[in-house]
Amino acid sequence: MRTWTTFAAALALTTGAAYAQNKGGGGIPSPLKITISGYSDGGDIPDKFTCAAKPPGGSPQIDWSGAPAGTMSIALIFHDGDVHPGKSFDDVTHWIAWNIPATAKGLPAGVAGDADLPDGTRQGMNIARKNGYMGPCPPPGLPHHYTLEVYALDSKLDLPATAGRDDLQTALGGHILASGVYNGVFHR
Amino acid sequence: MAINLKPVDVAVVGLGAAGGVAVLPLARAGLKVAGIEAGTWMDPAKDFKPDEIHNNVRSLVTTVPKAKQEIPTFRTSPDAKARQAATHPMMNAVGGTSIHYHAQSWRLKPWDFKTRSETIKRYGASLLPKGSTLEDWPVSYDELEPFYDIVEHEVGVSGKAGNIQGKLDPAGNVYEGPRQREYPMPALRTSDFLDHMHKAAVSLGWKPFHAPSAINSQPYRGRPACAYHGYCDRGGCQIRAKNSTCFTTIPEAQKTKNLTVYDGAQVTRIVSDDNGKVTGVLYIRDSKEYFQPAKVVLIGSYTYENTRLLLLSKSKAYPNGLANNHGQVGKHYFGHWDAQAGVGVTALFPMDVNTWYGAMLSQGVVVDEWADDAFDHSGLGFIGGSSLCTFMEKHPIAGASMSTFGRAPAWGSKWKQFVHENANRWTGSYLQGNSFPYENTYLDLDPEVKDPLGDPVCRVTSGPKENEMRAAIHSQDKMEEWFRAAGAIEVIKGQPFGPALSTHTYGGTRMGDNPDTNVVDRWGFSHEAPNLGMLGGSVFGTSGARNPTLTMQALAWRTAEHLAKNWESIAG
Amino acid sequence: MADEITRRAVIVSAAIVPVAALTATAQIPASALSDMQLRLLAAFTDRIIPKDDLGPSASESGVPEYINRALGDYLAGEKPAFIEALEATDAFARRSQSRPFIELPSDKQDVVLTAMDSGTAEGFANARAFFNRARRLTMEGMFGDPYYGGNKNFAGWDLIRYPGPRMATSAADQKMGVEIKPYHHSAYGNGQDHGH
Fold it and tell me: Which value does ipTM take for this structure?
């Protein structure tokens, strides 16, 4: 028998609770400043970071700054916003990584495709169900844009190397102190 | 013979901006909800393109032709015959127009909720617009504030606060009502042109600020940040950075398993019993008719359709249309006349402005100096005014179709030379005026024109509004002043041509305590049929000098939450 | 060997991504206009956007093709009235200038069109409305996405210095005082791409 108290209680429990995204000072996550060596923000991604290279290119050098005090780890997502496999809302995941040390100010070019790196970084599954970076590889012609998102978090994440984008996205919730975005476009 | 479906707690008619929000608190509260939408789901990858012909010339961002086949007829006096307008941007889809709108996401001002009493207090009753049926809203800005806050977070709104609990911040809008906390995301990126206009406004002693919008300026809840590609106007967002309800509140509600979406389902009638309670809705889906029984019905099908559905749903208890025994359904209708009826201000600059890309008005600089009651209206002969908005995003056909400002012919080689130089040197502006309800403006059913089902379309009857005309001319002059301070070498002020169909429409099921002059009560429920609620701009009593979407979403959340908390007394 | 496996995985992953089911250009309907009507339309639109130092004419840029296709599908309802007015244009030219429109020198063609634009041309249901409509469709054909048949080689976008649609732009693309490099891509990619 449902009464208003039941509904009110249910409302209070669920409203926004799962998405308390903002931490620290009640403010908005401030932007991280990101640079990628090799292309400008919104600019063309050179072949050497993509499947147009033979063998397919590795990841570019990435630098970031602005991680606030209290950052315990860094995470990243690199994805193709312009393709949605099947009828899902998800787009194509090219690279996810987390537990990048808080002290890191970036990543060198050509990060190896291992699940676990010596500094504690863990890389999850991209759309090819492999750990690590998969370069842009759109169908010929139509330029896609590829978005790198970098997150400064207030904790490390406990996720296995078999975790995918959805798992990472869920784990990020409530832990984001700052984030930054950097776009590139590519076509074949 | 309609097929009877299993009863639900709540049937929500229309899953656009308002209905799409209402389903979330209902579903979270454990109520079983049927979300009934005439359109279907859109696929960002296939349906949304950076293509002006697709989006703007042919208006193809929609899923079924329903809205295009029931465009209202329009007349400017009760004696004239109404004619059907050629187009209207209404569309049908899960997510409704929140799919292709500009995503501007404003709160109304405290003044908007008590315009009548504040005007009498400051200027005397003689300044109330002649012939208006203006009443104070039955709710105040302060009462709505918590719901603005909830929706800003649930939908995802980016902006910079100008007034947090009374503390003013000139980086935001210092004219806004006080809010409990900052926006969930900072305002969208600025640009050189916006900075240029910002500086010009400051040089005039005005207080410009960046527009708030339901577009992610940062990754938000698993959706990416805006990529500023410049096809936001009447375009869907391929990456879901524009927070249409089909990407935000509707999927959230589906996660609870308490919402079932029935898409491709066109509601034709709301059914009521002899006691005056609504019992459910009739809809057509896959060429079959269904009756969905429900303990409560909420209608969020857009202003015109909200009134039309009620008037079409006659019954023994409601011989003049559902909830219309007091004759108020269709009354107090109004639209954003000056923004939609010729009052644009366009400027030509002596340099390239590079406004091709961006997020339309959501990436904009706004001035509120000349809106609402922000300035002294003594001796001016009108109340209200307009917000003045500058923006990014220009499409190539529209860019090339620019006015030549009398400096070149409209075709030929000299025209070619002119647009080569100047297509990247002009911009428009967006003036949104405070609009009010009048005796002479109302909605009813057209006596002749019918939709494909044989039901009469909505008819809009309107008349002159001196107050809003005077306010519009005043606002145009201010916009010209702003453009000239920014270095414009030519400014054209459009000729107001009076009322027309509008995208921002209000009234028809107005909200107020008095059942003799309003259709719904302060919670959005009908005075006559207690288990019928109305969602959307149709409940507004004033428009504010800004877009309606966030306010109708806050009201929709409030209506739904009130329903969940008072279930027994409303559902009976 | 490891490279080969990686490469295959990448190709496989590309195959997982569904290739957009779009043809190089829009589905092309049967021609709405006869050859003569197309020639007339080309001459007409070439007065609205003539060839000159700034670039190719409307007909060189596919504007008649755009209009022809539109009249064949999206604007099919308008086709009879459009053809009637197009024929009336030629009839008016013959009456007022003693020659078919396409045989007139360009300055005389302009006289004919100016009479239509000002509403003084006779023999039309509404000369002014048709002229404006034809001008409007010329604009759509010249400056719309090449996918629809016009704006060949991005001539229209280059004329107005519109860089072209891009899925992502940066703050640098919204700076004043810089010339933004043209990005010659249709929203539908392939076929019209110039690549880089």
Answer: 0.94
